[in-house]
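Give me C-alpha cells for this 690-residue protein.
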Amino acid sequence: MPEVNPRAVRYHLRATVLPARARTEGEALYRVVREAGIDEVMFFLPHAEEMSPGLGTERECLEARDAVRPLFDRLREMGVVPSVNIWWTKSFSNFGLAARDLRGKFDFRWAVSARGVSDYTGACPLDERWLEQACRMYAVFAELRPGAMWLDDDVQARFRGEIRGACFCSVCLDEMARRTGRARDRDELLRAVLADPPNPVREIWLRFQEAIMLRIVSRLREAVHAVSPETRMGVMHSNLETHFAEGRRWAAHMKAACGPHPVLARPHIGPYSQGAVGDNLAGMNNVRQVPFLAGGGDCLAPELENYPHTSFNKSWRLAAAEMTVSQLMGMREITLSVLRFGGGLDLDPVTGKVTRFLARLKPRLQAISDLALTPGRQRGLGLFWHENVAAVARTREVGDPFTVLQRRRPWDHTLGLMGFATTYGPSDVAILSGEAIACLDGVGRRALLSRGVLLDARAAATLIALGDGELIGLGAVLDPVDACQEVIEDPAFGGQAGEVLNTRAEGGRAAQFALLPGARAVSQMLGYGAVRTGHGLTVFTNALGGRAAVWPFDAQILGGLKHVEGSAGMARPVFQASFGRQRQLYDVFTWLAGAPPDLFVPDAPNVLPLLSRLPDRSVVGVVNGNSDPIENVVLELRDPAHSVRRVQALGGDGCWRACAAQIERASSGAWRIATGLPLEHLETAVFLVD
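Here you go.
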C-alpha cells in the first residue's frame, strides 16, 4: 500500500446532477474529477439549488437517491469519496420571486417573523412534524453510505425569505414565557430582548435559540447514524459574528452535529463575487477566524464560490489567493463551488479552464500544507473576539435580534490593509472593539489589560461602565465633539508634530473622555476652520504594567457614543487610511508591545500580511489587494528565535527558490527584508525566512 501523506491537500467538489440526465452529466463529472484532481464529490440533494421547490418529499428523495447511486459506485471505483450536501433543510430564501409556498406539500406549523409575517417556506423549528420529515430525508440519503452528510447553512436559528430572522410564532412565544416566567407578545418580547444589558431576558432568548439549533442538529445526526454510523456529519456556517448573534456556541453545536466523529466544518471564504479591496480581504478574514474557534484538530474545508459568467464570479487570481490563505491557516481541505449549480454539466463551456486552474494550483497548495502550519503558530496583532458578545451588546436599533445584535469588525481587515499582520489568537497587543470585553470577568479583564491594548471608543466606554476605567486612564464618558481632522501633537505617536489626518470616514464626531492622572492625549481633534474641539488618541500605562491606547471613534457606529447609535457595513473602514495614519498606528503598536510589530509590510497599500512562526523559520504570506503591482515586497519582521540569513519564495510549481534578498536592521530593531520580488494585483507571495 502506498504511504498516504497526512497533510495531503483535498479538493471537495460540490456538484449537481439532474436525475433525468444522470448518465450524460455523470460522464462529464468523471472527466472533471480526473482532470482537476478531485478527492471528494459533494452532491446537492434532493434538488439542484435554484430548482429546489423546498423540503424534499419522500418520493422526491427516493428518486434522487436512486438516480445518484450509480454515480456513487463509479466514484468509489475511481478512489473518490462521494458525499451528500442537503440543500434545503430549514428554510432558504425564494429564487426569482417565485414563492415556494409549501402548504400544499406539508402540514407544518409555519414560522412567523417578529413582524407577524409568514412566507410559508419554513416551519417553526419546534414543529415536530417538520423535524420528523427532515430526519426521514436525511435517513434516505444515508442509505448511500456517503463519506459525509453536509448540513448547509440554512440549519441555523435564523430564517431566510420574508421572515429574515427568528421565529416568533405563538409556540415560541409560549416557550419564552415559560423560560422567563412572564408572557409577552411579539413587540414586548422584541423590546425586552433588545434592552441594554445586563439583560436576563436576552440571555434566556439566546440560550433558547441555541437549544433550538442543538435539537435540530442532534436529531438529524441521529437519523443519519441510525442508518450509516460511519458517515461523518459536516456543518457549513456563515460569518461567525452572525452565529454569535443567534446564540450558537461552537463546541456544543459541533459536538451535537458531529457526534462521535471529529468536527467537520465548511466556513465560507470571501465574498461571492469580486468586490472592492476591503470586501475581498474582509472575506478572507472570515475564514481566518474559524481555526481559533474550532481548534487545530478539527477538519475544516473552507468553501470557495466562483463560477465564471454568473453572479458568483470572481477572478481566478482572487480565488487562488483565498485558497492560499486557507492553507496558510493550516486548513488543508477546500470545498469548491465552481460548477454550474442548476445541472447541465455536460453542456458547460468552461469546465476545462476550471479543471486546469485547480490542477495547476494544487502542487503550490501542497507545498504550504507540507509545512504543517497550525493556528497556534500565527503571530500578529491580536483581534479580540468572544462568542457571547451578543449578550452584552448595546443598541438603539429596532429589528430582528439576529441582525441588530450582530457586531461589526472593521479593525480586522483595515489593519491588514495598512500592512500589519493580525491573528485571532493570543498576542502581546490586543485590539478591542465593541462590548466584547464585557464577556470577561474581572480576572480575565485584568489579565488582558496587563499587556498592550488598543481600544475603540465603545470598548473604552464599556470598561468605564464595568468600573475598570482606571486601567485605561479614563474616568467618564463626555459629550462627543466635532471632528473634521485629527492632528498629531506628539511625534513619538505619528512621526511628526502637525501631521494632519482626515476623519471623514468616522462620521465627524469623536468620543470624549475625562482623562485620569497619567493619561495623555497624543493628538487633538479639529472642527471646521481648524478649531480645536477635543482630544484625539490617548495613551496610558496602568498599575498592572499594561499599556493602553484609546481610539476616539466607535467601530460599530458613525459618530459619538452619547448622541448616535446605528449600524455600519461589515467592510466599512474604521478610519480614513493614509500614510500618516499608518505611521501613527505603527508607533502606537510599537509602544504598546515595547517592540516593533511581529510583521509589517511598508510602502504597499491594501495588502493582507500573514505570519506563522516555526521553531527554525518564519512563514510569511502577502496578498496584494491593490490594483497596482508591488515592485519589491519588503518585510519588517520582529526578531524571531531563529536566524535570519536566507529567504525563499514559493513558485507557481510548488517549488521553493532562494531570493536575492537584502537583509538589514531597521531603525525600529526589526529585520528589514527587501525580497526583490514583485507582486501583481491579487497575487499571493509566500516566503520562508530562516
